[in-house]
Write a structure and sequence with these properties.
four-stranded antiparallel β-sheet, globular, RNase_H-like_dom_plant, RNaseH_sf, RNase H type-1 domain-containing protein, RNaseH-like_sf
């Protein structure tokens, strides 16, 4: 989520039934466009999955254009081409990773957490009990 010049990265770890096991959010200052921001979020998620050994897995993002570029291997000569190239390299190197588009409406938890992160002063990482995070800034 890119709002003003603030970028919110939200990462959810779910099991195959959809149950959320963990999530994190981080707010950073953005000096780049939305597509680069979304590509960086995918890049960070892949690194997280790799570092935690969470393979095989499915990575879903609501950044339809960026996901299309990654799947097609296109736009490697664009401003975000280096990031897209690194993502392609990681996907090939790691194996066991599927990547796809999911509409924002399909992932209400991520959207609510992104809105909450914009109101928070600290980054957070949560495991197992989402109820402590359900006090949002306003209606989802």
């Amino acid at each position: 989520m890119l709002e003003g010049r603030k970028l919110v990265w939200v990462l959810l770890v779910r099991e195959s039934t959809g149950f959320v096991h963990a999530c994190s959010s981080q707010v950073v200052s953005a000096t780049f466009n939305a597509q680069i921001a979304e590509a960086l979020a995918v890049f960070r998620a892949i690194h997280f999955f790799r570092d935690c050994g969470l393979f095989p897995c499915v990575l879903e993002s609501d950044a339809e254009v960026v996901i299309k570029w990654i799947v097609e291997g296109s736009h490697l000569d664009s401003a975000g081409g280096v990031i897209l190239s690194d993502i392609s390299y990681l996907i090939e190197e790691i194996g066991g990773l599927s990547i796809g588009f999911a509409p924002r409406q399909a992932n209400r938890v991520a959207h609510v957490l992104a809105k909450q992160a914009l109101c928070a002063f600290n980054d957070f990482f949560w495991m197992e009990d989402l109820s402590s995070l359900c006090c949002c800034c306003g209606p989802g």
